[in-house]
Amino acid sequence: MVTKKQWILSAVAASLTFGTALKAEDDSAEDGTAPDFVLKSTAGPNLRLSEYRGEVVMLAFWASWCGECRSQLESFESLHEAYGESGLELLSISLDSSLSQAANTAGALDVSFPVLYDARGEVGELYEVDDLPLVVFVDRDGRLRETIEGYSRSEQELFLDRLRDLLRE
Which candidate, 47, 43, 46, places its Cα nearest to that of 55? Predict the structure, then answer.
């Protein structure tokens, strides 16, 4: 796992060298609502979490220099393909130091889900990302349901079980 200090240093460097459209709103009220945010995607447009209400959302925080993160993104491609039509939206959030690093890594992994760029690490802070990789599950009503730190291929079944439970609700 990558430590919070490592990704904070990377995010600070990014905020000094690259600006991006970002709006983080701490609307995570006591009802457990996921904090809304807007981030630039590597495909170009800005995406807002609240636009995905009605869908089950997996937020996957990662960075190109994190080996576990890269493995996780590869395995999530198959989840995205299998469950996308059932209501899964997978949003990967890169904490890399540049947009090009995030785009190049996503391109090399050939992921089809949106890759968002958190230039200043503000969304990472909003979701209290201490270690990478980190996955946050958001239900159809926009509520935070579960957070899972770290990754190994043997844990693929854990993600699948959580995902199936949320999709059945």
Answer: 47
